[in-house]
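Changelog note: in this version the structure field was regenerated for every chain. One regenerated record is shown below for reference.
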Amino acid sequence: MTRTEIVEHLRIALSAVLNKEFPTLTPELRLFEDLALDSTSVIELLMSLEDTMGLEIDPDELGPEVFQSVGSLADYVEAGFQKTTV
């Protein structure tokens, strides 16, 4: 899966979870400060990504740095896909 496809999946999932349309997402957008993600939304977002992308997320791997920005979350998802294709 390409980086562009990952960001598009994130855009769709964030739009659904936050009940708000995001025409575009930039890597610099901060999930909590700019998009108003909260702890409940994080869980919903992760479940949505698991369902729509077939990604298995290990909660033990999730540090606060994963949720700093759209870019850091995309990095985490991209790394998850690289693990499954190795």
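Spot check on this record: The chain has a mean pLDDT of 90. The CA atoms of residues 32 and 56 lie 23 Å apart.
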